[in-house]
Amino acid sequence: MKCPAVACLWPPSPPSHRISAAAVLFHNPPCLFTGGADGAIVRWTLSGHDVRPLALLCGHSAKIAALAPCFPDAIQQFSSNSICSNSTPASLLSACENGVLCVWSAGSFRCRRRRRLPSWAGIPSHLAEHPSSPHHICIACSYGESSNTSVLIVDSGTLLIVQTVFHGSLGIGSVKFMAIVPSLEETDKDMQAVFVVDGNGKTQFLPLSKDYAGRDYECSTSANRVSSSDSLAGESSSNNGGLQAAAIARDGNLLALIYEFHCEFRSISNGAAMGEISLPCTNLGDEGSFKISGGMFLHHIDFGNASNIHICAEDFKRSFALWYSNGSATVYIISILDSSVNCEPHCEVPAVSLRSGGGSLFHLCQLNDCLLRLESTPFSMGDLLTWKPSITIWSMAEARMSRESVPGKCSSSVILGEGGFSGIRFNPTQKVDRRLEERHQNEILDSNLGIIASRKTDSGFNFENPIISCSMVFSGELYYPQYAVVYGFYSGEIKVTHLQSPSLNSNSMEEDSLHHSKLNASGCFFSGHTGAVLCLAVHRMDASSRNLRIQRILLSGSMDCTVRLWDFDSGSLMLVMHHHMAPVKQIILPSTLTERPWYDCFLSVGEDGCVALVSLETLRVERMFCGHPSYPSAVAWDSRRGYLACLCQCMSTPSDTVSTLYLWDVKTGARERIIRGSASRSMLDHFCSCINQSILGEATSSSPLILPIVDDSGFSQSKQTKTDVGTVSVSSGDMLKSSRKGTDFVESSIYFTNSNKGKLASMSMINDANSNLVVNNSTKHTGFQHVGQSKKHPIICSCPFPGIVSLEFDLSTLVSLQHSLNSDEQMVSQSCEHAEEQSLHNEPLKDDNFATEGLEGFFLRFSLCFLHLWDIDLELDKLLKEEMDVYKPNGFKIAAGIMGDRGSMTLMFPGLCVSLELWKSSSEYCAMRSLLIVSLAQRMIGLYHSTTVASSSLAAFYTRNFAEKVQDLKPPSLQLLVSFWQDPSEHVRMAARSLFHCAAPRAIPCPLYGQNTSRPGTPHSSVIVEENIHSEIVSWLESFDIHDWVSWIGGTNQDSIASRIIVAAALVVWYPSKVKSKLAELVADRLVKLVMSMNDRFSSTAAEILAEGMEGSWKSCLGPEISQLVGDVLFQIECLSGTPADSVKYSSSMTETICDSLVGILLPSLACADIVGFLNVIEDQIWSTSSDSPVHLVSLKTLARITRNSPKTLALYLDKVCFCYFTC
C-alpha cells in the first residue's frame, strides 16, 4: 500500500494566474474554482466576506479549457423531464487543451482520476452537465486538421468514453457553446439532444441514444446521426463583431446569443427572434469604449425590491446577466409575453476604474443571490506579461439605490467581499508596454468565457518581491543529499537556495547550540542574463570527463536568446552560447543510463524552432536540428538509442491546429520521418513509453505534469501498461518511476563512515565520513554508480509550476531505508577495495552501521521538519527542538499537500488555518498524514533511544491530543488504517493499530452503529425494523463501489470490500457495545472467507481478528462449522507448504506471513473453542495424509500450545490426545 505525504514550499511572490475558466460548487461553504492559462486551478473559499485562495490543483500543463461540477459516485437515473437530485457533494471535472481530464474529489479535492483523451478525439473546449445522468459529462472537442468535431459522453468516475455522440465535420462552424436539452422530436419526448452553437450563431442538434446506459468501457463507435442545421441567428451583420458567448435557459426553451454590441433572444423550438438588448440601452457609456464580454441565465432569485416592475402574473420570469469589457455588469428581469421578450434592468455592478483595470479580463459567476466578478489584470515584466487575479462578491438582493430615486438608472449592487493573491501592490506610474498588449492580443481573447480585454492599458503593478519565471529542485545523491532550489527571475537573475540546517551539519549536541539549530534558507545569486530566465538544469559531469575541475554545471536559457553555463559549486560563469535566434524555452538532459559521449550533452530548444545538441566536454554545438515550423511543444530524447522526437503544432488560424511529429537520428543529424495529424500524438506517447526517463529530462525546470499519462496498478490488473492508444510492453512500476522523476537523483553513491557513535546523526558526520576514504572521481563513479540506480529516493522533489516546490515523502522507503542502505554497503565495500588501496589515508573503516544510521536519521528528521504541524502544541514544538533537533523551517512558506492520481497534486496555500482545512474536510488525509508521522516517530525511538520522550509525545499528539486541541477535526478513515495492518514494516503496523483504536469510537460507519448508541452530532434514532438493519449492514459490507480512499493507497475494489470486513470484525471484537448486535452474525462468514482467500494484504489480519474474538464473538456464530474450518485451515497450510510448482502463485513472504498467522494464532484458538472437533479432524488428517505432510508437525505444535496454555480443557480427552501425540 502507498502512503505518500506532500509538503509544499511557496515563493515569496505569488504566482501568475490568468483566469480562463471558472466554476462554483455549492458546498458548505461554497467553493470557487478558477482555471488558469498555465494549467493551474485555484480553489477559493467563499465564507462570508472572506475571499482567499485555499489550494492549488496541479494536474494540467496546458490552458484550462473548461470546468464543470460532476457526481462520480451518484446513482444513474435516466429521466429527461426531471433533473436528478443527488445528496452527495459535487466533485470537479477539469479539461485542458492538451486533452487531459482530471476529476477532483469533494472535500479534499484530491485528484482521484487523471486521464488523457484519445488523440482522435481532439482538443477539449466545452463541458456540459448531463441533466438526467449526473454520473456523466458531455465533452465537445475540436481538431483543426479538417475542422473535425467530437462530442463525447464520459463517465466522470473512470473518465472512460461511454458514447461517441458525434465525430466528424459539423454542418456549422467551430463549437462556441454546448448544452444538453430535451429533444425536439415529436415521436420521442423522453430523448435528449446535444445543442451546439458556432461562432456565427448557427445551431445544430445531436441526438443522444439511450443504449449507452451503464457502460463502463471505452467506446469508439461514432454515431453521426444529426438533425439538420438551422440558423437561429438570422442574418449576421458585419457590425455584430462575432459571437462572444451563448447561454440557454434552464428549461431549454430560450437561447441568448451574445455579440459584441447587442444580445439576441431566440426560441429553441422554431428559431424565431423574441427580442434583444442593445449596448446603448444600458446607459453605461459610449458604444466604442467597451463591449459585451459574456452573459448567462441566473438561477431563481427573489429580488425583493423588483415589485416596481409591472409584469403580469401569468408571465414566465427569468433573470439574465450581461457583463462588459470594463468590468461592469447588468442584471435583467426577463418576461415572455406573446412570443416576445421584455427586458427590465434590475441592478448593475459598477465598472473597474481604468487606473486599476486597464487590459483586464473579466468573467462572472453566480453564487446564490450574489455575482462573483473574476478579474485578471496583466502587468509587464520585461518582454513578458504576468497576471494578477482578484475576486469581488456583489449582492443582487441588497441595492443601495432604488430606481425611483434616479430616473433611468437601475440600482447599484452592494459589494460584500473581495480578495486575491497577496504580495502585489498597485503602482500607477508603471505602464504595460503597448507592444506587449499587441503581442498577447490572441491570448487576451478567450472564446470559451467570452472575455475581451480593453485596449487601454495605462496601469501596472510593482512587486514587493522579485517574480519567479522558472524553478527547479536539486537533491544531490542518495548517499549525500544536498537539497537546493534554483529560482530564475524575470529580471534575469538566478538564485540557488540551499536547504541546510546547522543542527543537521554539526556534531555538537551542547545545550548552548540548540537555539542555533534551525532549518534555514541560504543561497547565492548568478547574474548575467539580460532577459527573463525561462529554463534551468543541473548536470553532474561524468567521472571520466576530461574536465575534472567542474563536477556540477548549471545551465540556464533566457529571453535574451542565450544559453549560459555556470559552475554550480563556485558560482562562476563558464560560457555564454549564442546559437539560438529566439528565446530559449527548454533544456533537456540525457538519461542517467546514457553512455559516453552522449552523457555529457544536453539539448536546448528555442522559439526559433531549432533544437541544438551541445557537448559539455567540447563546449560547442555538435548537432542542430532545424526545420520545425514552430516551437516544439513536446520533445522526447531517447539518448540510449540515439533518436529524438519533436512535436510541433502548426497554427495557421486560432481554430486550425495541426500536430506534426518529427523524428531525428541524433548520431547523424538526419530527419528520419514526419508524422502528421492525430497519429503524431499517439506516436509520441508510444515513443515516450519506451524511454525510462522524463519526457524533458530529470534535473530540469520541466514540470512533471507534462509526462505521458498511463494506467497504473490501481486501475489496471494487467502486468502491461494500457495507454489511450494501445498496450505498451513496459511495466507499470517503470512508468510510475518515470513519471515521478521531477528532480535530480544522481544515480551514484559515495561511501562514508565515521566513528562518532552515540550522537544524534548529523550531516557533518556524513560529510566527514567522506574524508576517511579519499579516492579519485573516476574510481568513485566507476565503483559506485551501479549501487544507487535501483534505489528509490525517499524524498522526491519537483516544481509543478514556477516557484512552487513540492516534496513527496514515501513512507515505505523512509522506514525501510536502513535495510536498503545496509545491502548497498555490502556491494560498495566490494567495489571500493581497489580504491582504498590507492587512497592517501589507509585508515581502517570503522562503525559502518553508524553511517547508515546517520543518513537514515537525517532523512527522518528532515521529513519531520516539513510534515509536522507547527504552532498547535507549543510544548511539543519545544520538545522536538530540544531533544530531536527538529525545527520549523525558516525562510520558507510551508504548506501541506496531497498526492493524486498519476503525478497530480493538490497543494494548499501557506497558513495554519488553510492547513487545518484539510484536517477538517478529509478523513483520508487525517489517516494518511497521522500514519506517516506516527510511524516516523516510532522509527526514531528504535533508532535513537535518547529521543524516546519527544518521539512518544509526537506520536501521542497525532493519535489523541490533536483532536482534543482542535475542534471539528475529521476522524481518520478506519478502512484506510486497516489496510496497513499487514504492512511489512513493524512501525507502520503499530502506528496503524494505535490510530485505529484511538479513532474507532468516533469514526464508526453509520450503518454499523448500534441502536442504543448515539453518534456524535446526530440525533437519537428510533427503533429500527430488523429487516432494515440486516439490509443496511449487508449493503455496506458488499458494496462493490470503488471509494475515494482506495485511490489514496493504490488499492482495488477487492481491497475496499476486504477492508470493510476487517473494520466490521474489529469493531465486533473490541467495541461490541457500540455496534449493532446483528453485526457479528453477518460478518462472521465473510471473515472466514477472507481468511481462506489467501489475500496477501488482509488474510493474516483476518486470521488474527478471528482468533482474538473466537471465545467472545465468533464461537456462537460459527458453532458446528468450527471443526470444518479447522480442516480447511490444515488443507490451506498443506497447499502453502507444498512444492514450488504447487504454490507458484504465492510469494514466499506472503506464504510465510499467512502460515505463521494460521499456525501460531488461528489454529490454537479454534482448537480451544472446539476440542472434540479439533481432535477428530487431526485424527482424520493423520490417516489421510502422508508421513512427511506438514499437517503432522502443525498438529503437534498446536497440541503442545494447548497443553501448555489450557491443560484443563484436554483432561477429558487424554486418550485422543495421547494417540495424536504418538501418531504425529
UniProtKB/TrEMBL annotation:
<dbReference type="Pfam" id="PF00400">
    <property type="entry name" value="WD40"/>
</dbReference>
<dbReference type="InterPro" id="IPR019775">
    <property type="entry name" value="WD40_repeat_CS"/>
</dbReference>
<feature type="repeat" description="WD">
    <location>
        <begin position="526"/>
        <end position="576"/>
    </location>
</feature>
<dbReference type="InterPro" id="IPR036322">
    <property type="entry name" value="WD40_repeat_dom_sf"/>
</dbReference>
<keyword id="KW-0853">WD repeat</keyword>
<dbReference type="InterPro" id="IPR049916">
    <property type="entry name" value="WDR72-like"/>
</dbReference>
<dbReference type="InterPro" id="IPR001680">
    <property type="entry name" value="WD40_rpt"/>
</dbReference>
<keyword id="KW-0677">Repeat</keyword>
<protein>
    <recommendedName>
        <fullName>WD repeat-containing protein 7</fullName>
    </recommendedName>
</protein>
<dbReference type="InterPro" id="IPR015943">
    <property type="entry name" value="WD40/YVTN_repeat-like_dom_sf"/>
</dbReference>
<dbReference type="InterPro" id="IPR016024">
    <property type="entry name" value="ARM-type_fold"/>
</dbReference>
